[in-house]
């Protein structure tokens, strides 16, 4: 590190009294994770500030060609710091880092630079990563904590899946969202209350699924639209101009592969590295065990969904990754890497023929794994349509929505044709 | 128009299709399957009023209930508010074609700001241009304005062209930076017009077809294609269509509205004309809630105060009719305007001129000189003349000016005359934004806008014209805007769509005008200067350039800064004024400028040619003047200039050196072997080719290298590029693949390398995602490689043993198990490492030699730092040659990165190529005679991070930061300004 930008270490003492701010990505998942962290003695808070000025702040403090997620996340942090809501000498910021070859691994450096520029260079930044990029005495991931965070992600994915499958069909507007919020609270309560047995977790799965089954729904078929893409703009309403709600308002059902797949993808890459290049052999052995463990949990959930409801479960990860065969190598691991291609194929396999591929403008991995793979996917699966939408501070909503509308119009015409021929 | 529609007969209603695009409104009315009313008119952003007006005209025809649907990007808001069915425009087009011409295979439709391609046969598919692609109707209009032609005149001219110049087709701004210099250099307007059409065609085919061949019966739709004969011809030629297969229907411009009508017929909504008019009228009066910015002026008094304050800015004027003595002439031949100033011994302005150069600056300067000479009569002697700006060389040669001066220095001269303590200058001209920070009376840093973000003066002007206003009137309107729209701060293409969005919401001209002014200012502050707060800029700020004559822009700037600035009264003439001051300070005895009598017989003609000096094949414009002298422009090096080879040929140039190494490598091809393996010379291969070549040759293969990139090579592969916003070096790969196939290879090898060589002392050693995995994309998108073996294994080049195993697997899989043994493979790989080692040592040794030579001979050193592939003649566009013409010894990043200790950085130092860049920056800081210029590829996501870091390192070390963004643009005008400014600033600093 040079002397130009100060790196403030988050110390053990800070843990006691500092509030840790966390950017929004997935409202439900992150809410649960935040509550779990608080249980372990941290004071975390998920940022909920929105608005156009966040973009403006980002533009002011971050290089304008940087990817949009960095710009938004940093803008959101700065907006929070400037809001007067926090004691600036008792606040820290947390950001995730995967350490991959994509520029996203540099968000942390960009955030520090922006803080320095804005006169907040005394505020510590915590890197949340599982590969040990930066040592942080005040923030340690322990095994029990990691396990609970894992459950948080699994429950988050489940809630998202059920809500999306109910929401577009519900008779009483808002019911599914209300249920999702209710369960987010309950799960957060449960996971932050102490040790939780696996059997209790499984009972909760069933309870939640049954509760969503009780949502009154029409059986009028809707166009299913899948969302894949760069992880932040895929999930965050702040990043994708509220894409999910737009699709629902256009009378479509949103299908979104979950966050767990991304975690598994990160884990699995270590195994691939070892297979391809003969490196990280010990780590790969650990990764193998973790992968088996998590995939096991995912499969259990899938079988519970199948047994106790009519909902379409998620695709098991060990199947998802085989879908890339003939399309892209598993060694392509920067950014969302091969997972992006795999998720498009996973959606196609589920019968979701309309896909929005969301990426920040100028996202390098997406040139290859997103836009670069659309041709073979479309060629080999008739009737599949994929629209690439770029997000950046200058891109207008009307342009983005117009392209999605085109896809929806075609999908509707196709389904009418189908209905007429039957 | 006589078209019969196979719609339902004998219906008791009429059908109306409304298409409201970005610039025009189109409406058709169908009665009994016949078109009874049709109109196509510009709406000048008054979307709702225009629709209302047209509807009122149809009142008489509408004697039955109406079925109606709206389409078009600007129609969405209206449809929503009025509860009228809406249909997406591409979908509507497809409806029309399917109904009226069902055997069509492909439709190409160009609209005001959208371009669409619809495939009907063999897997229907519809595509629209991405957000970064403006080559459409509005673009053509903009280009016509730039050439001071109407769209019709431009079309007529294009049919007489003899020659096509390469014009970047990515978007309007890019094309403009190619076209403007062509105009300034005197290329014929006919040729430029045809080149513009060719660029539009290119853009459409490359940007939208994405590898799918456009063939069969092709229908062309949309406004531009129904009006421009030249454009039609260009499409037919490029697609090689026969007469029967190229369909230009009579209803081309109405296709969307017809589609909307067909769609409307399928709906069950009926409207009554009176009711309809009422609903639309209500909507026309409502302004929807939209985020708006505070007005520029609270009230009239605030505006008057502002005008008062700025009228005090100081400039002395003299009377040319009475003045006696010496005078100095300064000319600023800018991209869109020509400025001329004559000053007296006391720096009084005796004569001034400012106007658009109408695409022919030579003629304008000639007229002005005649005028000046006649006004001067015998009282005034011109003792010196200097010229600056884009047209500097041309004017200097044409009229024998004494001196040329780079624009940045001219502007600084002028600004410091007005405010000796000036610490920040911002100049927004027609096409450039220039900012300088001044420290200790020397330029401390220079920032120029990128080609991609030129939201400058000419943009407002073209926009004003497209909305039907003159620039002055348009700007005036912005001053009184109540609620300026927020249009963002990006490139003009994005602004266009932001404007569209605002129009959709019913924003008026005033608010759009003010919004544009604010955008331009924000673009300059946040995008070009990259400032995060006003205090960063400085205390004594001088603003200048024609754009600041616009009060709305000036006010927006002050508001954004939060404090007042100085705008000299001659804001638009500062370049010319600075040039005059410059030549005055030279203290010449006598000016060499063309005399009054010579001027009377002055003639000028220009013709186009292609330079055969080297593989760059520069397109030249040869200007011939009355006195027989010539001036050649468009050349990238001295070879094409027709003048004696430069004195700088002895200066070391590492880029040239490396190219020579590659030339040898390419030429050194074995005759026979097991099979022919092709290596595309692009991206990472610009460093690893010797490595792989040796390995495969040791194994008994013939290795064929595709060769250097060129424009021609690029166009060969352009059709299969799926992502238009990827960097130019990546897109060039498609051409290399085609070239290798032409050369006849059995296999192509470009491995996936997540990790590059580990050069130690860094956080990691990745390749960028594009360098690492581009072959995945090539395999999926270039169908032509399916006929050969395409080898792109994932390899680890840091571990010889591991690499041997991995490569053996690939080779055995493709060429049979017995092809080679593990032992042979290991030996081959060892040889590969050796050859790579020798290769890199040769480069480093030459780097050391270059540095020593420069120091021994008192030459300045420039580290032209990019990635290995930036030395490609087509990617680097000969920037290295330009630098050596300016007297620099040019070294590359890989040749000097090892000459210093590793640099500590504030970012994750995880890419091999970029860590060399950081080291070079450190090296430059350690040596007074060394400068670093960073080469950046447009669209390179990593460079957003590396540029800021490089700048931080250099500025900490007291160095100037210079960045050159490269893409398809072939014109080096902007690069030249950057490099010369750097040179000027270094000299001033001393």
- Please name the CATH topology of one domain in chain A: Rossmann fold
The domain tally of chain B reads: 6
Secondary-structure arrangement, i.e. CATH architecture of one domain in chain A: 3-Layer(aba) Sandwich
User: What proportion of the residues of chain B form beta strands (DSSP E)?
Assistant: 15-25%
The low-confidence parts of chain B are: none
| Count of helical regions of chain B | 35
Report the biggest beta sheet of chain A as strand number plus sense, adding barrel if it closes: 4 strands, parallel
Number of E strands of chain A: 8
Mean pLDDT of chain A: 90
Order of H and E elements of chain A: HEHEHHEHEHHHEHHEHHHHEHEH
Termini Cα gap of chain B: 74 Å
Q: Per the principal axes of the C-alpha atoms, what is the gross shape of chain A? A: globular
What report would you give on this structure?
- The complex is a heterodimer of chains A (422) and B (990).
- The longest helix of chain A has 28 residues, at 281-308.
- The mean pLDDT of chain A is 90.
- Chain A has 422 residues and is α/β, with parallel strands linked by helices.
- Chain A contains 16 helices and eight strands.
- In chain A, α5 links the parallel β3 (91-96) and β4 (125-128).
- In chain A, the strands form two sheets. In chain A, strands 2-1-3-4 form a four-stranded parallel sheet.
- Chain B contains 35 helices and 30 strands.
- In chain B, the strands form seven sheets. In chain B, strands 3-2-1-4-5 form a five-stranded mixed sheet. In chain B, strands 8-7-6-9-10 form a five-stranded mixed sheet, with helices on both faces.
- In chain B, a hairpin with a 4-residue loop joins β16 (424-428) and β17 (433-439).
- At the A-B interface, α3, α5, α11, α15 and β8 of A face α3, β8, α18, α27 and α28 of B.
């Amino acid at each position: 590190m040079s002397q130009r930008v100060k790196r403030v270490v988050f110390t053990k003492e800070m843990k006691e009294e500092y509030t840790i701010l966390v950017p929004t990505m997935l409202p439900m998942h992150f809410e649960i994770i935040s509550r779990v962290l608080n249980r372990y003695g941290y004071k975390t808070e998920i940022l909920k500030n929105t608005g156009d000025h966040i973009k403006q702040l980002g533009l002011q403090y971050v290089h304008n060609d940087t990817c949009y997620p960095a710009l938004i996340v940093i803008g959101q942090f700065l907006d929070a710091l400037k809001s007067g809501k926090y004691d600036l000498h008792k606040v820290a910021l947390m950001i995730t880092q995967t350490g991959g070859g994509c520029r996203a691994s540099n968000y942390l450096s960009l955030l520090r630079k922006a803080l320095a520029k804005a006169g907040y260079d005394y505020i510590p930044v915590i890197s949340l990563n599982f590969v040990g990029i930066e040592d942080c005495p005040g923030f340690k991931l322990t095994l029990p904590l990691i396990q609970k965070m894992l459950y948080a992600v699994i429950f988050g994915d489940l809630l998202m899946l059920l809500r999306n499958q109910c929401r577009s069909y519900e008779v009483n507007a808002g019911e599914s969202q209300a249920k999702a919020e209710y369960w987010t609270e309950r799960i957060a309560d449960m996971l932050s209350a102490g040790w939780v047995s696996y059997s209790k977790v499984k009972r909760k799965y069933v309870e939640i699924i049954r509760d969503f089954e009780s949502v009154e729904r029409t059986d009028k078929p809707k166009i299913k639209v899948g969302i894949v893409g760069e992880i932040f703009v895929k999930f965050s309403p702040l990043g994708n101009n509220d894409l999910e709600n737009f699709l629902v308002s256009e009378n479509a059902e949103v299908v979104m592969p979950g966050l767990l797949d991304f975690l598994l993808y990160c884990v699995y890459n270590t195994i691939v590295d070892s297979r391809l290049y003969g490196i990280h052999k010990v780590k790969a052995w650990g990764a193998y065990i973790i992968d088996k463990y998590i995939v096991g949990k995912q499969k259990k959930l899938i079988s519970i969904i199948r047994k106790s409801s009519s909902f379409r479960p998620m695709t098991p990860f060990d199947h998802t990754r085989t879908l890339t065969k003939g399309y892209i190598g598993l060694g392509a691991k920067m950014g969302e890497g091969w997972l992006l291609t795999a998720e498009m194929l996973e959606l196609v396999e589920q019968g979701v023929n309309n896909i929005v591929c969301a990426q920040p403008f100028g996202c390098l991995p997406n040139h290859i794994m997103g836009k670069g793979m659309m041709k073979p996917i479309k060629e080999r699966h008739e009737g599949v349509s994929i629209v690439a939408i770029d997000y950046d501070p200058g891109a207008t909503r009307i342009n983005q929505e117009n392209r999605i509308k085109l896809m929806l119009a075609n999908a509707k015409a196709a389904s009418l044709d189908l209905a007429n021929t039957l | 128009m006589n078209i019969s529609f196979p719609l339902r007969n004998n219906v008791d209603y009429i059908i109306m299709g409304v298409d409201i695009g970005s610039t025009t409104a189109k409406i058709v009315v169908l009665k009994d399957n016949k078109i009874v009313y049709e109109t196509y008119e510009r709406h000048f952003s008054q979307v709702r009023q225009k629709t209302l007006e047209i509807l009122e005209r149809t009142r008489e025809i509408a004697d039955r209930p109406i079925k109606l649907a709206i389409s078009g990007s600007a129609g969405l808001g209206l449809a929503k508010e009025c509860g009228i069915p809406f249909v997406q425009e591409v979908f509507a087009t497809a409806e029309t074609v399917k109904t009226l011409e069902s055997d069509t295979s492909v439709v190409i439709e160009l609209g005001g700001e959208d371009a669409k391609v619809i495939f009907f046969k063999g897997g229907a598919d519809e595509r629209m241009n991405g957000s970064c692609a403006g080559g459409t109707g509005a673009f053509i209009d903009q280009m016509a304005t730039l050439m001071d032609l109407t769209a019709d005149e431009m079309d007529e001219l294009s049919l007489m062209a003899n020659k096509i110049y390469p014009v970047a087709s990515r978007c309007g701004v890019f094309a403009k930076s190619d076209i403007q210099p062509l105009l300034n250099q005197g290329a014929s307007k006919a040729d430029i017009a045809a080149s513009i059409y060719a660029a539009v065609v290119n853009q459409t085919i490359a940007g939208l077809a994405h590898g799918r061949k456009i063939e069969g019966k092709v229908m062309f739709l949309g406004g531009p294609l129904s009006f421009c004969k030249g454009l039609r011809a260009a499409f037919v030629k490029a697609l090689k269509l026969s007469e029967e297969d190229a369909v230009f229907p009579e209803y081309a411009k109405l296709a969307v509205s017809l589609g909307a009508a067909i769609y409307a017929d399928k709906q069950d909504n009926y409207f009554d004309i009176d009711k309809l008019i009422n609903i639309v009228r209500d909507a026309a009066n409502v302004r929807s809630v939209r985020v708006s910015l505070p007005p520029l002026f609270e009230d009239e008094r605030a505006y008057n105060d502002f005008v008062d304050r700025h009228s005090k800015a100081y400039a002395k004027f003299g009377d040319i009719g009475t003045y006696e003595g010496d005078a100095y002439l300064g000319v600023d031949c800018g991209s869109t305007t020509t400025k001329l100033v004559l000053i007296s011994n006391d720096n009084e302005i005796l004569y001034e001129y400012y106007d658009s150069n109408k695409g022919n600056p030579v003629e304008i300067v000639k007229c002005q000189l005649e005028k000046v000479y006649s006004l001067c009569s015998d009282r005034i002697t011109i003792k010196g003349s200097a010229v600056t700006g884009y047209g500097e060389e041309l004017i200097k040669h044409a009229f024998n000016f004494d001196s040329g001066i780079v624009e940045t220095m001219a502007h600084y001269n002028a600004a410091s005359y007005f405010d000796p303590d000036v610490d920040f200058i911002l100049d927004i001209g027609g096409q450039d934004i220039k900012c300088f920070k001044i420290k200790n009376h020397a330029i401390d840093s220079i920032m120029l806008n990128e080609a991609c973000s030129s939201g400058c003066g000419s943009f407002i002007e073209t926009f004003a014209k497209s909305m039907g206003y003159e620039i002055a009137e348009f700007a005036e309107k912005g001053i009184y805007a109540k609620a300026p729209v927020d249009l963002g701060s990006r490139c003009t293409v994005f602004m266009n769509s932001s404007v569209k969005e605002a129009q959709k919401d019913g924003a008026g001209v005033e608010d759009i005008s003010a919004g544009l002014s604010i955008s331009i200012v924000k673009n300059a502050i946040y995008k070009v200067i990259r400032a995060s707060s006003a205090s960063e800029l400085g205390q004594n700020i001088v603003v200048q350039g024609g754009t600041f004559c616009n009060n709305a822009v000036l006010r927006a700037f002050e508001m954004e800064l939060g404090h007042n600035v100085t705008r000299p009264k001659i804001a638009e003439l500062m370049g010319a004024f600075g040039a005059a001051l410059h030549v005055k300070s030279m203290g010449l005895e006598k000016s060499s400028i063309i005399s009054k009598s010579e001027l009377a017989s002055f003639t000028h003609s220009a013709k186009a040619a292609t330079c055969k000096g080297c593989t760059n094949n520069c397109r030249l414009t040869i200007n011939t003047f009355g006195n027989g002298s010539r001036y050649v422009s468009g050349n990238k090096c001295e070879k094409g200039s027709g003048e004696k080879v430069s004195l700088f040929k002895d200066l070391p140039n590492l880029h040239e050196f490396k190219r020579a190494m590659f030339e040898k490598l390419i030429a050194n091809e074995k005759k026979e072997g097991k099979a022919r393996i092709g290596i595309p010379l692009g991206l990472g291969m610009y460093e690893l080719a010797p490595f792989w070549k040796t390995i495969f040759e040791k194994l008994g293969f013939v290795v064929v290298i595709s060769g250097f990139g060129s424009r021609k090579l690029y166009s060969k592969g352009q059709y299969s590029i799926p992502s238009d916003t990827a960097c130019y070096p990546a897109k060039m790969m498609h051409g290399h693949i085609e070239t290798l196939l032409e050369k006849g290879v059995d296999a192509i090898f470009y491995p996936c390398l997540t990790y590059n060589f580990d050069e130690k002392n860094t956080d990691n050693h990745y390749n960028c995602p594009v360098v690492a995995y581009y072959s995945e994309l090539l395999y999926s998108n270039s169908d032509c490689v399916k006929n050969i073996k395409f080898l792109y294994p994932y390899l680890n080049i840091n571990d010889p043993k591991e690499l041997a195993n991995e490569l053996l697997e690939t080779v055995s899989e493709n060429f049979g198990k017995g092809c080679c043994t593990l032992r042979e493979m290991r030996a081959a790989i060892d040889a590969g490492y050796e050859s790579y080692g020798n290769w890199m040592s040769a480069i480093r040794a030459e780097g050391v030699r270059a540095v020593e030579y420069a120091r021994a001979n008192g030459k300045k050193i420039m580290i032209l730092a990019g990635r290995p592939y930036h030395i490609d003649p087509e990617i680097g566009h000969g920037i290295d040659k330009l630098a050596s013409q300016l007297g620099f010894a040019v070294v590359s990043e890989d040749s000097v990165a090892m000459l210093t200790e590793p640099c500590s950085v504030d970012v994750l130092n995880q890419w091999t190529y970029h860590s060399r860049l950081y080291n070079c920056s450190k090296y430059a800081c350690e040596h007074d005679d060394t400068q670093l210029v960073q080469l950046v590829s447009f669209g390179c996501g990593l460079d957003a991070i590396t540029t800021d870091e490089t700048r931080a390192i250099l500025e900490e070390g007291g160095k100037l930061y210079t960045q050159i963004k490269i893409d398809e643009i072939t014109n080096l005008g902007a690069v030249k300004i950057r490099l010369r400014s750097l040179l000027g600033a270094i000299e001033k600093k001393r």
